[in-house]
Amino acid sequence: MFNERLREPERILIIDDSPSNARVVAEALRGQAEVHHASGERAALGMARSLKPDLILLDIAVPDRDGRAVYHALKAMPQLRDVPIICITGQDADDEQLQALGMDGADFLRQPLSVQETRARIQTHLTLQRKARLLERAAQDMSDMRRYFPVFIAYWNADLRNISCNDAEGCWFGLPAADMAGLHARDALGADNYRAMAEPLRQALAGSDALFESRFSRPDGEAWYGRVALISRGANVLMMSISDVTDDKRTQHALFDERERARVTLNALADAVIATDDDGRVTFLNPIAESLTGWQFDDALNQPVDKVLLLRNSQGRALPSPTHLALAERRTVGLALDCELQQRDGGLLAVVGRAAPVMDHAGRPGGAVVVFHDVSEARAMAVRMTHLAYHDALTNLPNRILLQDRLLQALQQAEQSGERLGLLMLDLDHFQLINDSMGHAVGDQLLQLVALRLQQGLRPGDTVSRQGGDEFIILMPGLGTIEQAGMLSEKLRRLVAEPFRLGESRYDLSASVGISLYPDDSRDADELYRHADAALYHAKQQGRNHCRFFSGEIEDALLTRQALERHFRMGAKQESFLVYYQPKVDVEDLSTVGVEALMRWRKEDGDILAPAEFIPLAEKTGLILPLGQLVLRQACLDGKRWHDAGCDLHVAVNVSAMQIAEAGFCEQLRATLKETGMAPDRLQLELTESVLARDVELTMAMLSELKSLGVSIAIDDFGTGYSSLSYLKSFPIDVLKIDQSFVRDMLSDTSSGAIVAAIVRMAQAMGLSLVAEGVESAEQAHALARQGVRIMQGFYYGKPMPVEEMDRRLS
User: Fold this and answer.
1) Region of residue 294 (left: phi > 0; alpha: psi -120 to 50; beta: else)
2) Which range of residues forms the domain containing residue 528?
3) CA distances from 169 to 91, 180, 181, 588, 713 (A)
4) Residues 200-229 pLDDT 10s
5) How much is the CA Rg of the chain, to the nearest whole Å?
């Protein structure tokens, strides 16, 4: 329809001297064709020659000329030979003449012309003309196609002799179509080429069409490839078409060679390679990938890649597939740093690698490739190298670098927590003699054994380090007491002193130890090293096989602490710890109304030490807890005995801050009262103001619980604290003890006298009992009595005395 619209209007030439016929034709074809009119033979032939009409209407009935001659003149023109001519005749036309013209292809219309008939005849011829032109054009197109289309087309008869061929120039097999006609296929195509197609030709002649590819050669020997189609066109005709696929074949060969080269390359790689399609299903594994994953190629083919390449992190959690991520994000994705491959049999391998998308010609991901390799050995080697960088190669102990790092961390933690930290330097005595006499091999073995013993003797958080030679350094964070450092150093020294055996030989070693402490004698790492080294030097100077602290003060305290603990452990039998009592006197009748229990320590040499000489150390080392319990129990036993003897007096016992802070102190006191039978209202607990100031809520709860037991609470050394008055309203206090420092100076110092007077008035106003400490003269006693103080305690009324002497005084 599109071509119909675009074609030019058909042209019709009327050769007629009568205008009426021209009008009839014009009317019949109005709007359908161009109608041209000519009269006279010369004018008609000229117009026909120039116009080249699609149809001619010729009036052959003109009386003054021969219309048949015009007809033949028109047919003689080459360009008009195929143009149909409709002859217009009269009613009396010569039948023979008309029949002669009809045999030449003419048609006829008789006058007078009818519009309908004229239109029908003309349209029929125009339609036939159009179809003829289309057939002619199709034939020409087919001829051009056969000639110029890049396909060899030939027809053969039943004897395989050539009927026709489109190879006019002889480009395919060296023979042009004209020379090939009539030749047998063997001669037309060449013997080698014919031999390659002999069997398919035989089958095609038998009626079986064939389609195949074959290798051909040109007359000059050049090889080419063709795709051959043999189609039977009946019993006697065979059509052959051959298209040149040499370029495709070469491309296929190149692709095959490239794929083979890639396959060999991938199989030869030391890395594992897995390829997938765009759905993440495995399409290729090289041998290394088979070995690492445990999957054979045939088993892994078309499996999901995350099933074949199953990745975990170092904690055992599954990792997302790098292949799917690479496909989704269209970028190269690296495997996680701590990635491990779970093999098909469950084994684990540390791997590194990356996945990348493979993009097609349109820029879309057509698949992905994962390349990875086993780094288990390399990672283990890295760990080993890192370990060697921070550990001694001989003993596997931390070296100086690692010790320094741990020391700095321990110092930072100790600074934040307020804990003590110790650094011990241990040196094997005269170890060089073993190296010189027995050889370094024996010396190295002994150093390894020493390292093992030292490790076995340490706490979990301690670090022992070999600094080189026969010197070891021990870091002890979180020390609760100085004693722990001394005990640990003695333990290590004893471990070293135990005999070592190598084969049949026995080796006896000894060690000198130097100790420095943070924050007691050192504030930083450098000082700790220097002080420990200095202490080690002193230990060696004193004859070796000794432990020495850097500070003489600390060392003395340690010796005292050791003796104190040893005596405490054996105190019940040897009576190393004694309870003395100082009387409290009612000045109105000079009667003893109470006693204060005071601790005394009898040393091995018989000297008796007052509390001021060992209680601070006991508080510092934590021994105040068992010592306080010892005094409390003994005071209750003596108080019960005196009460049973008829002495109505209070027994006061000092309670330290550590005892108050101890969670089970109230239960311990209840148990002690029950055990000894002491009446709770006869027991008075004396606390210093510093105890009250530590934790108000905790102390309030503790004092309330103590009061519930029935005991009374006294504030010792009242007036020396910085916030005493604020606590008097809050705490359940029964007694205030005026500190002896104010009593001692009250007569000579107006300020002290004023403080004493203020305390007395305040206690009286609040209904609290008063005890004046440190009364050493009658003047002090009279001055206090005048102010209303009745209970006094001090050397004027009696010094602290053993229980036997207090028994005699009370009796």
Assistant:
1) left
2) 391-550
3) 59, 11, 13, 157, 134
4) 988 888 888 889 999 999 888 889 999 999
5) 64
